[in-house]
Structures are given as structure tokens and as C-alpha cells.
Please model this.
Amino acid sequence: MSEAKQGMLFAGTAYIAMLNPDTQQFGNFKQLEIDQFEIATPSDKIEKTSKSRENFGQVFLSYPVPTPATFAVTFSEVSKEIFAMLLSGAIKNRSAGTVDADIVVAADNIGDWLEIPGASGITGAVVETGAGAVVDGLLYELNPRAGLIRFKTASDLAGTGESPAAPGTFNVVGTIPAGTGTVIAGGQAYNNIMKIRLDGKNLYTNEDVLVTVPRASVASSNAYNFLSGEFAEVPLEGSLLIEGSEPAFTVEYL
Model:
């Protein structure tokens, strides 16, 4: 009887644990969808060529010298943590607090959006004139998410009791609630270390295959178009790290 043909058609479920840079401990594994899981084990060659009359220029000694194993992964399921890696960002919690900011409205900025410092995500906003009178909410437009305010027309500004011909100072007060929101501080975290277990299966032979990466250092080198109109993907590239005499990765047929 002829031996069955062999082939590899791989499917796998990825479990990712991230290293906490502060504690230097890995967190719990999270199951995430990925589209790419690629390992390369490149090498350079040291060679000696012949100078003989018969074989001048031909190699008679050759030895492959290992170079760092490289790794690439593309996440198709994008959590805040994964998105932060795409942006080389550090994740921070938004701080609760109060907003108490002055803005100046003048004839040349009527209709423009004006920044309320520190007010993105403001709730319970109240706008007062310089004399302390509360301004009717119909006279201005507030974007609490962006922390912006505008008086659309000169008549709206006049309705507050301030003169459109002279700068008027307004005070905006409100709160930033506790426990709401996350901040990704972009460009502040370039080295991301993760460990991975790819619970795989060779669909052709029906064999279970486990790929284990103890430590991979990855970073983003791709731009992200916030207005692409498509689901985001997060491609990351880097190197596999070794610890002592342990291999950079293992593949187990179970």
C-alpha cells in the first residue's frame, strides 16, 4: 500500500498574555482572533570559496549562522490594549475632577468652536457670564465630548448681556466623572512583550498542534487611518526572545 500523502492546512485559536512593564509579570491569557501568526528562523552564511584553477569562485566550505528569530502577528479582534499597541501607546485611566475654566468670546470668534481647557467628557456643564449670571443653554452650543463651546451668532452673544463689540469672559464649570473612559497616550510605549499559545489543528490530517511562544517583543510600524471605513487590523512585528537555554518557540504534535 502507498503511504498517505502529508500536508499542512493550519487553523488555530490564539491565547495572548501581556507583560506588565511595571510589575514585570504576565497577565492572564486572553483569547483573541488573529489573521496572521508568522515565525521566521533566518540565518546568514559564512562561506569560503576556492581559488583553485579548476573551481575558482566555487564554495567549498559553508556554515549557516543563526540570526534572531522574527515574529509577526496581525490582530483582527481589536481591544483597547491591542489598539494601543498599534499606536505605540500607553494606557491610562481618565482622571476624575472638576472643570472651572474661563473662555473669552469676541466679535472675531463668534461662530467658532472655542476650547474649554481640560473639559473633554465634561458632564453637568454650567456657563456663567463674568458677572456670575447663568447663561441660557439655548444661546450657545456645547460639545461635551470634545470640550468645545461656541456662540453661533452675535445676537446669541448679545442675549447673554455681553456686547458683541467687546470681548466677554465666560466661566464654564462641570465635572469629569470617576471611572469613565481610558486614555491612550500615543508614542509612549514602543516595546510590547507577550507570550502566546496557538491552539492549532492540521485540518488535513486532523492532528492537534500546539505552538508556544514564551516571549515575543513586538512593535507597530504601520499607520492607522481612523476614517478608513473598514474594520481595523493591528499588524505587529518583532523578535522572539530566549531565556537561558530554552528554545525561542516550540511546536508540539499532541
